[in-house]
């Protein structure tokens, strides 16, 4: 039986050593699996944060990793990668792995049994971590900025405010130093008690509220960290951020900054060109 990949990104690792357990080539390119890795893979069911890129090296040789992604092998021996995995993350009957996708064929020195050094592209990882933390903070600020528009109780977000994010978010795409989130403002949200008409007529004021809140959170310089229930890629992980309003805890598989003081700014713009679809674009700048 294969063993699940041990992941170290949640502790902030960007380098590590591992033993190659398989090298597979298929429609997704060449996939290298290692027993332990610092690479953060894109999730196959909720692909919000892109996978890390970087290098794998041994001796004097180095090969580029284009992207880390989820891989899994069934108890019957079927190997699947990324969106070809036919079951949800963590499903029983599968062993969960991190795949390192190479653009070309694997060089001869890279084969099952090789000892290798793995290095994540640090500048890109840092940018994605800022993008992911900014995305969560912007969502919490959005919930707060529209809290008065609910006529019914929709459930609470991580700060105890009405959970607009949880009710309406349909996709989240994180990139270096930013994110784009889409929210469905259709009939079902209105039926859940959200006043979409007033929201549309006060859009500019809502955007200002979010940006004022984000500036206040950066000024507070709260700590931000990931807590993992275990060392494999499918163990649950949570983002913790000790904001002045309370300790925000959100289930999250991504990477994050260590402190909100790492930002010079986080701002959002709200777009309601399609009245049924709110697009929130979040942009962050680094303090360093
Ligand atoms: Zn997240």
General description of the model:
The protein has two domains: 6-120, Beta Barrel (Elongation Factor Tu (Ef-tu), domain 3), CATH 2.40.30.130; 124-286, Threonyl-trna Synthetase, Chain A, domain 2 (Threonyl-tRNA Synthetase, Chain A, domain 2, 2-Layer Sandwich). The termini are far apart. It has helices at residues 122-145, 164-168, 187-191, 196-201, 203-220, and strands at residues 6-7, 15-26, 29-34, 36-37, 54-58, 61-65, 67-74, 79-81, 94-102, 115-120, 169-175, 178-184, 224-228, 237-243, 246-251, 263-274, 277-286. It is α+β, with helices and mostly antiparallel strands and 288 residues long. It contains five helices and 17 strands. The mean pLDDT is 96. The strands form four sheets. The protein has an eight-stranded antiparallel β-sheet with strand order 6-5-10-2-3-9-7-8. The chain has a four-stranded antiparallel β-sheet with strand order 11-12-17-16. A three-stranded antiparallel β-sheet has the order 13-14-15, with no helix packed on it. The radius of gyration is 20 Å and the shape is elongated. Helix 1 (122-145) crosses helix 5. Zinc ion is lined by residues 132, 136, 239, 252, 254.
Strand and helix layout:
Elements: E1 6-7, E2 15-26, E3 29-34, E4 36-37, E5 54-58, E6 61-65, E7 67-74, E8 79-81, E9 94-102, E10 115-120, H1 122-145, H2 164-168, E11 169-175, E12 178-184, H3 187-191, H4 196-201, H5 203-220, E13 224-228, E14 237-243, E15 246-251, E16 263-274, E17 277-286
Parallel strand pairs: 1-4
Antiparallel strand pairs: 2-3, 2-10, 3-9, 5-6, 5-10, 7-8, 7-9, 11-12, 12-17, 13-14, 14-15, 16-17
Helix pairs in contact: 1-5
Bound molecules: zinc ion.
